[in-house]
Structure formats: structure tokens, C-alpha cells
Amino acid sequence: MTTVETDESFGGVTPDAARRLLLGAVQAFAERGFHATTTRDIAGRAGMSPAALYIHYKTKEELLFHISRVGHERSVAVLTEAAQSTGATRRAGGGAREESTGGSAPRLARAVRAFVRWHAEHHTTARVVQYELAALDAEHYEHIVALRRRSEEILRGVLEDGVATGEFDIADIRGTALAVMSLCIDVARWFSPEGRRTPDEIGALYADLALRMAGHRA
Amino acid sequence: MTTVETDESFGGVTPDAARRLLLGAVQAFAERGFHATTTRDIAGRAGMSPAALYIHYKTKEELLFHISRVGHERSVAVLTEAAQSTGATRRAGGGAREESTGGSAPRLARAVRAFVRWHAEHHTTARVVQYELAALDAEHYEHIVALRRRSEEILRGVLEDGVATGEFDIADIRGTALAVMSLCIDVARWFSPEGRRTPDEIGALYADLALRMAGHRA
DNA sequence: GTCTATAACAGGATAGAC
DNA sequence: GTCTATCCTGTTATAGAC
């Protein structure tokens, strides 16, 4: 949770050189975009010659895929954990669901807050993850799209639960879930550590906005 | 308002060749991004040789700037018009404002609906306008940022008015305005004409969501 | 205004020494 | 595993004929 984001997301990557390359690539891609970034730039940031890059990654695109994959996995994990009921959730007979501890409202609030925090704290990674997908090759792109669908489904599930229990009042669940996702994702585009709000403050504000969007009766 | 967006935004551009280049560039930039687009590609789409491009635009970046400028001007105009009171708005003594015809709630709804519609209907242009700014040179970038601030201020103004009249209940006006902008802008990222909703349906949904975010008492 | 041809150069990826 | 040197392709932008 450093403010000068050195992004611990890739802390566990094995050869030290590979990790440095990943970190350099994330920064370069976030600043300039994938296509405007040269392999010389990436290698330079990692303190290596351009050639050394190819020992660890077959192409520049593979580097992007690695970043995208790990980034998406992290953000899905953050969302999944936060969206869980604190106790267990059991399905009741007719398809409606009973909550044991956390109702849908706190689950939604926790999910949005955590997801937004992740996008703000890791805005460098998140920017690459969210806005450079088009540069992936077809196969890698499909892999990532599958991960993205998971996030959407998780969020939609929380909204569905809340409507079923009467906590939420939503006309268009799918559309609202998409809108809440939009809101969270867009944080990566504009967030700056120099801005007037901390990641957690934005998370708290957005959690409140999401509850309002869900028609939560305060 | 064609579904197969041929984007009338640039209909008035004077030499026919210049307009075709602009249109080709918008499509190419939206599909591949600025840096991944070649001048050959743009010229090809306009039915010209690469060299002909430089008669009409000094550089590829100038083409992007032109698109960005016109696009921003259009979207600001759309937002401004929609956010106006239908009658005149007069300031009352203490800084609070009286509405004559349209209250703040319908103004917010109209503004969001129109802004979202624009981003959906012109999603090709909008994508370039919103996501390729980083490729502009410093001077051009500043020009565009000034236009963007205008949009934010317009939206914030509507929220402030609504809070002053008691129509809205907002703790953090600036943050909420930013969030509503986010929501609208992000439409350009994911909208597809093949999707299940029309631009106007999305606009209507988002207008409702914005009212909820603003704490409008229905 | 548009074309063909080309200058001038940058960038991804590899070869081969160490 | 890393370096230096380099290949080779593709790119922006210009020159000069029509």
C-alpha cells in the first residue's frame, strides 16, 4: 500500500530480471500505451539491454498478456472475496436466497469499495489491464475476456440477491451491474496519487453511490 | 442517427478529401488506437495514396487533434444544451438559484441522457476522443483539457443547483459529478451497435441512475 | 491535388561472443 | 543470462512528375 506505486502485484515473479521487466513494462504501457512503448524502453527501465528481454518473454505482446492476466486475476480475487457473505449463503427453495450474516447491501458496499480501491491503488496496472486489451492477440484476448465476465457475474449476483431479499429496488439488473462496473473501472483512467482523494475515500464514496444506484432503502 | 455510424460530426469539413481522411482516421484510431494506426491505413480508407494525406494535414497527430477538438466541442455542446433550464434561470439574492421551468432533476436527467446517447451513437469518435488523448502533443493536450473541464463544470453546476433547491441530497458534489461523468464516458469503451440496448435505452437507464446517485427524492 | 518513388529512420526480434 | 551488433521490416514524411 505504498503511495508511490511500485505494485506488489508482481512481487512473486520468479527470476528477478523477469520481475523487473514486468514492472518496467507496466509503467511504460501505462504512460505511453502498448504500441507507443518500445522494447528498448522496457529493457532500459529494467536495467537491461533490449536483447535480454527475449530471454524471459517471447514477444512484447506476451509481456502485455502476462500483465493483463495477473492483473485481472488479482482484481477478480479482490472482488470475489469482498462480495462474499461474511457467513455462508444458502439457497432457499424457490431460488431466492437467505443471507446469514451480511445482507446484500453490505456485500455490495464491500465489493465496490474494494474493487475501486484496487483500481486506484494499482492505477498503473489497472490502466494497462483495462485499456490495452485491444493489443492482445486473439487467443490471449479470449482468455482475458473470460476473466472479465467473472467480475460482471459476481457483481450481478450480488444485485440479484438483494432484489430477491427486497433490499434493492432495481428495474434493470444487468444494466445496473454493468453501470456499477463502469464506474469502478473508470477510476483507473483518471485516478492520480496527487489528486485530492485517497483510494479509500473514493472507494467509500463509490460504495455509497452504488447503493443508491441499487435503490437501497437507507 | 444512422446505426451504422458514418458520423455526421465531420459533415461540414470543407475539401472532400480532408473529410474522407478524417473519417478514415476516426475509424482506424478507434479500432487499433493512434499509435498502431499507419498513415497508409488512413489514406487507404480515404481512397488515397499515403502522400496525399500530407496535403491536408501536417502530421498524423494533427489529424488526431482535429478529431479530438471537434468531438469534444460537439459533446460539450450536447451537454450544455441539455443541461439548460427550459425557461431562463435567474440567480436569487443569496447565491441560491430559482428555477423557472425545469427543475434540477429534469435538467440532470436530460443532460445525462443526451451525453450518454452521444457517446453511444458516436462511440467510434467518442472512443478516440476519450481514450487517445495521451497521444496529443503538449499544446494540443492543454487545449483539449480545457474543453473537458467545461463539461465537468456544467454537470457540477446542475448538481449544485439541485442541492441548493433541496431536490438533491449529495454529500460530495464534486466527487459525485466526477462519478456521473465517469459513468457516461465509459459508455464509449463498451458500447456496441450489436449489443442488446439502443443508445436511447442506455441514456434513459443512466439518467435514472444519475438521479439516484444525486439522491433525488422520487 | 493526387500520384509514384524514395529518403530517412525507428522498432521488434535474432546471432553469437562472453 | 546478459551483452553488442545487426538484420529486416515497416513507418512517417518529402520530392518531383502529372
Overall geometry of chain A comes to: elongated
Helical content class of chain A: 55-70%
What is the CATH class of chain A?
Answer: Mainly Alpha
User: Any idea how many domains of chain A?
Assistant: 1
Structural class of chain A: mainly alpha
Number of discrete helical segments of chain A: 9
Strand order of the largest sheet of chain A: 1-2
What's the story with the biggest beta sheet of chain A?
2 strands, antiparallel
Mean pLDDT of chain A: 92
Span between termini of chain A? 32 Å
Q: Summarize the helix and strand pattern of chain A as letters.
A: HHHHEEHHHHH
What is the CATH homologous superfamily assignment of chain A?
Tetracycline Repressor, domain 2
Described by its quaternary structure, the protein is homodimer
DNA-binding region (chains A, B): 38-57
Organism (chains A, B): Streptomyces reniochalinae
Keywords (chains A, B): DNA-binding
InterPro entries (chains A, B): Homeodomain-like_sf, HTH-type_TetR-like_transc_reg, HTH_TetR, KstR2_TetR_C, Tet_transcr_reg_TetR-rel_C_sf
